[in-house]
Amino acid sequence: MSAATMDAISVDSLVKRFGSFVAVDGISFEVPAGSVFGLLGANGAGKSTAIRMLCGLLEPSSGSARIAGIDVTRDPEGVKRSIGYMSQRFSLYEDLTIAENLRFFAGLYGLSPSRARTEAERVLALTGLAGREDSLAGELPGGFRQRLALGCALLHAPRVLFLDEPTAGVDPLARRRFWDIIYAVAESGSTVLVTTHYLDEAEYCATVTLMHAGRIVAEGSPAGLKAEHFPSAMVEVVCEDPAAALALLAADKRVEEASLFGSKLHAALAPGFGDEAGAGEELVREALGAGGIAATSVERIPPSLEDVFIRVISGSAEADL
Amino acid sequence: MSRLASLVQKEFQQFRRDKKMRAIVIVAPIMQILVLGYAANMDVKDVPLAVYDQDRSAESRDLAAAFVSSGSFLLAASPQSNREVDETLSSGRAEIALVIPPDFGSRLEGRGSPSLQLLVDGSRANTAAVALAYASSVASNFSLRYAPAGIRVSLPVETRTRVWYNPELKSRVFMIPGVFALLLMVITIILTSLAIVKEKESGTLEQLIVTPLRKAELIAGKLAPFVIISLVIICLALVACYLFFGIAPRGSIPLLFLLSLALVFSTLGIGLLVSTIARTQQQAMMFSIFFFMFPMMILSGFVFPIANMPAPIRALTYLMPLRYYMIIVRGIFLKGSGLELLWPQLWPLLVIGVAVVSFSIARFRKQLD
Amino acid sequence: MKGRVGALVRKEYRHILRDPGTLGALLVIPLFLLAMFGWAISLDVNEVPLLVRDLDHSAESRALAAAFFASGRFTRVDDRGGDTGASLDSGRAAATLELPRGLARALGRGETAELQVLVDGSDATRAATVIGYIEGIVLRFGAEKLALKAAGSGRELPGALDSHPRVLFNQELKSVNNLVPGLVAIIIIISGVISTALAVVREKELGSMEQLIVSPLESWELIVGKTLPYATIGLVSAATVLTAGSLLFGVAVKGSLVELALMTTLFVFACLALGILISTIAPTQQVAFLASAMLTLLPTFLLSGFVFPIRNMPVVIQALTWLFPTKYYIEILQALMVKGVGIVSYWHQALGLLVYALAAASIAALRFARSRGR
After folding, report:
1. C and A: touch, per 3+ CB pairs < 8 A?
2. Number of domain units in chain C
3. ipTM for this prediction
4. How far is CA B282 from CA A303, B235, B269, B279, C38, in A?
């Protein structure tokens, strides 16, 4: 197996127990080098625990994982040289400046002073923090802190980058910019594993894995997942009485599933209905009209990963029952 | 730059920014030496004395004068009844009372053996015993002055006493090196016991352990700055001792620094151990106060002699670095002792230091569990 | 109103109970320390290592040498030859004695013989006591010789002055009677000041303080809620120590228990006020810890008069002791426990404690309210 085809991350039946609580219940996946991999799930699904095991921060209860060719369960220290990690909570030194934080971590990764300088400049440019080197990390606004943390993780050009909820609490515009940086990193050859509970962000990933209660419940590319779980049309309804509309459509046999999204309604049609353009909307408008519910708009929309998630979770919940 | 050097540089950068800590580290040693040096004084001097003179003869007045001129006592009250005597003692106005019976003077002139009554407030047990001893000796010496005319009474045996190391018998000379040692112990344990826990609590430890930084380097990097800070504290304390009390080590100062490093090594190690075990700063503080600082303050021989302790406690003191350092510090300050005399105190310090630091490193795991 | 404070108090108790380490430390360690104090510590000067060099080798000199060791105060250090001072340098002996050649002859002729005494003066109090012992033994030996001679020649000599010493209040001069009050004070001040300061600053650091501040709680309710648990723990701890002290070492409270409870409560109040005051000044737990330790531990140990007499200190330092509530409390405890007297005797200390408590509480309350913006 040549290095080029070897996966950057390879996980096999990883399990983590805390006493009687099973946080991670046997997960397995592979991530090819140079791609952006998303680990999705609600809070408490086990994402952070999983990522910490991959970084050598937690010892797995059983199972194994290989990061950049090194078995992390057997040689956690060896892995740390080749990875970068950004934790969920801000874990840099608030009483040091940006420059001092960068210089410190450069030193820890064994960069010579001259190389540290060049890398720091590169990272500052990449994260858009140039010009703020002398600000104290503790005085930076939230989004900037995240960028600094990312920057510190990139100094040594790691082969694998682990980001745990990197955009938590950041505004959508800043999040977009953050993802631009992540893409740039992936393009340069590093592999990026991101955990997030923002399902819209998952669209940016090449491959996405959904975790729920410590297990993987879905895996694939975003487009692939959508196609797999929503082979037929999805219609969005805006009306004055969403609750009534929901009840009506849920009872309709031609609608496979209806759910509320805020004040809007998403109706997933059963296979065979509404495949041609316009047919789905027709169907729903007619059903609503028959039930006496006025609709402001009825529109076909592409399914989102959130839709996929809900379907998968409720599906697996039903399976559990 | 090496990983260790990076860590040490970061520690100093943080320390430089922390103004309050810096102030405390510089001011505290000076203040503590100053205040406690003055306070740590066990001399029995100017003990308030009450004299109930029932005789009012020339001899009884002479006796009272003898007490006062001894320098150990200060006339605080002249009660006129037994009840008043009790009152002066209960209220604390006097700590010792002398009751001279009415026939004192005549008995002293040779018609029988004179007697006195001394009453001591025992609630201050430490000073009461010594005050009593002083009083008894004043009384006995007084009696020797009175001999029947014509008979020269001289004692067949006299002593010529020379007091070494502290000829004026000032307790401060003994106490101040002790305060110096105590201070060093307290500050070094406080500094390190919080060092790692702080990073645990703030979350930065997670970022540290995900890097290639080795755990030995982490621990060394956390200790090294404190060693340097301790040296600064020692300098400040030495200067304070000299400036305020005129007390300087009789022995070699470089030796004092060297041996102090040995102590600092072991106390820093203790603080570090606490820091790796405790989960919050509050826990670390409680632990270090009650399990280490307090017992060492009491059992290290600072005030209470180790020789007086029962054997099992004495055995326990062999585990305490401060026990050895007390002897070292007092040896260098008072006796000018050299390395040959102090070596039996040095090697246990080194052993304890190595043991504690190694144990901390071994126990510490670069993982979050 | 009671409901709000009650909720805060309950929350605080839960915090404490969930941290068994701190709880254990506050309750168990004092008992351990009591055992130390009662059993291990004493300032008695006994078993002093003495080196006696007998250069006369006569019956008299041997008798004199024996007198020292018969007194029970000294233990024998062997004479390894060479300079006697070396034994002081190495610490093997605390004093050396040289009985000169010709001692017996001088005694026989009625002349005065001189003993050379060297004393390690490092520990001055101890040295003074040792000198006292030596001189006392020499005096007695000489007086006996004199009496023998006088009896032989038919004359009567004045007897040595007989002073009947009586020790009041603490007949056996047991150090533990003196130290238990100090221990009780230390326990209360540690749980009262240090814990309180830490607890409040910790809340500040974690940010949950903000939540409390914007709640409808009044400043005083907040303070009461935060400090009440520590007050109770301190009191329980102190009561445990007093009980243990009485059961194990017979340290009894000779005075009124009611007054003891009253004064202790006042002291606890003063400590809590001090703790809150510190918490309004310290921005981090580290600073809170250092500040409260510097203000409580060492000074309580050394300045409150329970080991070193305050009387001996320079006036400036004596004035400083007024800053520490322990000074008042320990004197009150000594009066109550050891002397068994009532408030009539210690009223000025009680007044001092009251004034202290009120002053600290007012300053703390002012600062606290100001930091809340109310």
Report:
1. no
2. 2
3. 0.78
4. 51, 30, 19, 8, 29
